[in-house]
Task: inverse folding
């Protein structure tokens, strides 16, 4: 029996591992249990309805999902050779292996020794627009708490951010003095059929508006990898920029009830889009990046969703 336990806020790796191992468990007979404190998979990121829908998808990959649970104690039983888990309900679960996805906290010991400024809310080293913490000291990646001119002060734990901010910090060390303006993206796949790309502030506590469409055979992580050969989508998405946005006209097909096969979820503050999740929609991050950069108020998010061309076009349309 294999148990995976993603702790609060560490939602991506735990669910990714659970799906991958659950899929293998369907073939080998291995039982996979996933435990987390939220009410659904990626509950800190996705709106409640989509989190619940996703949880059912994870279950279909062969995972025994246990939500609203967290560990109280972990002990090793020498007599059985198993690990004994006790959760908040008092239930005891015996497993052969345990994987814990705990995330990270920036190591700020250097700040304590040198007097560098740290951020009490987000953690990490506070830096200016050029990623400079102090004269001749730059910080990049997960440890940098920077000021986003569109979204406010942030600390980001994404591959895309680490690559771009690290490159910029190196350039600034050489005297370029360039500001950090990049809006980083991240992505995650839950098995071969469900994947998403996201950008900006994607927090389930924010108001969200989702627009969905019927999924096709091309709308999956597996199809994207087969078509492009690109497994690290953040590497290609980083270099793409949408200078202008072309609107597309959807066909008459609209949302598929509770089947959230593909769509766009907008995260909103006072009618301004601050985050976007592209749900089984790939290669459109530059459009989402420009929406956040523009910082405009929107009244009809259905119209905004047209920019992402999520509806199937009429094949007979000439």
Result:
């Amino acid at each position: 029996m294999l148990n995976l336990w993603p702790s609060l806020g560490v939602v991506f790796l735990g669910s990714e591992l659970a799906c991958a191992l659950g899929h293998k468990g369907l073939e080998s007979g291995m039982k996979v249990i996933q435990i987390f404190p939220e009410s659904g998979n990626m509950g800190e990121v996705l709106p409640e309805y989509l989190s619940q829908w996703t949880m059912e998808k994870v279950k279909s990959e062969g995972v025994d999902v246990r939500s609203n649970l967290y560990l109280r104690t972990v002990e090793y039983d020498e007599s059985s050779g198993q690990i004994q888990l006790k959760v908040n309900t008092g239930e005891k679960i015996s497993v052969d292996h345990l994987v814990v996805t705990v995330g990270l906290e920036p190591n700020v010991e250097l700040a304590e020794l040198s007097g560098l400024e740290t951020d009490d809310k987000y953690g990490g080293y506070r830096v200016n627009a050029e990623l400079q913490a102090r004269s001749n000291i730059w910080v990049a990646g997960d440890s940098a708490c920077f000021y986003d001119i569109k979204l406010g002060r942030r600390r980001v734990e994404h591959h895309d951010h680490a690559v771009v901010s690290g490159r910029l910090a190196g350039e600034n060390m050489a005297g370029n003095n360039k500001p950090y303006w990049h809006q980083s993206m991240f992505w995650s796949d839950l098995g071969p059929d469900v994947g998403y790309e996201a950008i900006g502030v994607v927090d389930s506590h924010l108001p969200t508006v989702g627009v969905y469409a019927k999924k096709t055979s091309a709308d999956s992580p597996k199809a994207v990898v087969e078509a492009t050969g690109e497994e690290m989508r953040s590497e290609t998405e980083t270099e793409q920029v949408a200078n202008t946005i072309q609107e597309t006209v959807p066909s008459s097909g609209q949302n598929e009830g509770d089947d959230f096969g593909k769509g766009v979820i907008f995260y909103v503050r006072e009618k301004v889009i601050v985050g976007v999740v592209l749900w089984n929609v790939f290669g459109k991050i530059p459009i989402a990046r420009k929406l956040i950069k523009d910082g405009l108020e929107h009244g009809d998010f259905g119209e905004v969703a047209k920019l992402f061309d999520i509806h199937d076009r009429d094949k007979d349309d000439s």
